[in-house]
Amino acid sequence: MEKQMPGPINSSYAQRVLTKVPEITIYFWIVKLLTTAMGESVSDYFVFHFFNPYVAVVTGFLVFIISLILQLSVRRYIAGVYWFAVLMVAVFGTMAADVTHVVLGVPYLVSTAFFAVALVIIFTFWYLVEKTLSIHSIYTPRREAFYWAAVLATFALGTAAGDMTAFTLKLGFFSSMGLFSAFIVTVAVFHYIVKNVLPQGHRRRSPNAVFAFWLAYILTRPLGASCADWMGKARGMGGLGWGDGLVSVIFLVPIFGFVWYLAASRIDVKR
């Protein structure tokens, strides 16, 4: 009996079985936004209210490395492992952006531009090497390394951008939430029009779902951070004054619930 040569079916099977990221569902965006907000409040709590800031940053970095090692060591997507890594990227990404401004004295406008350039460089090398930026293609170690580098850059960029609109542009936390929400809605509407309304020929020449995904991914970071700051920061700063510690717990509860549901139902696993 002749052996079958590897073909598209085997490739599809590898993508389904070995993929390291979840399917993009409404649950993905909900948990992404929650972890984004919690990362902001946890980082601010440990840096400004609990630990010596230098100890907090080093501790955050070490836990971040542990979470990535754990994520990289598993062979396929596991909800708890993946979202723990995302949460720690949110925490350390916030710390990296804050250190750039508070310790090094870099203005938010400059740090926003710096992290934006860093993200463009990561995307450029990723595309040149792998010929794709699709989240659905994350089933090799090299692609996963590019993916997590991009994710970390988006969190640092989003933190700096949110602080820039709130403080440098003096919009405050609540107005920043409205601004980034409007951007995300615009991206969603544009993507819907491109996908469902434009003629087929125009669709080929328009930005595709990969571009829309990463743009929305970037924008959810400053949206979540602005939300956490609005809830946690003092009234004198334009917040509700609930405190970063309480806000962290408020976000932790639904994150735990959603991740438990995803792990149990496997609704976000490629089939």
User: Between the first and last Cα atoms, what is the distance in angstroms?
Assistant: 30 Å
Largest sheet: none
Strand content: under 5%
The helix tally amounts to 10
- Describe the global form: globular
**Average pLDDT across residues?**
85
**Pairing-aware structural class of the strands and helices?**
mainly alpha
Helix content: over 70%
What's a quick, concise take on this entry?
With 271 residues, the protein is mostly helical.
Folded structure, characterized:
The chain is mostly helical. Helices cover 77% and strands 0% of the residues. The protein has ten helices and no strands. It is globular and about 50 Å long. It starts with 7 loop residues before the first helix and ends in a 6-residue tail after the last helix. The N terminus is likely disordered.
Summary keywords:
single chain; 0% strand; mainly alpha; 271 residues
Spell out the blueprint of helices and strands.
Layout: H1 8-18, H2 26-50, H3 53-73, H4 79-102, H5 108-130, H6 141-168, H7 172-196, H8 200-204, H9 209-232, H10 244-265
Helix pairs in contact: 2-3, 2-4, 2-9, 2-10, 3-4, 4-6, 5-6, 6-7, 6-9, 7-9, 9-10
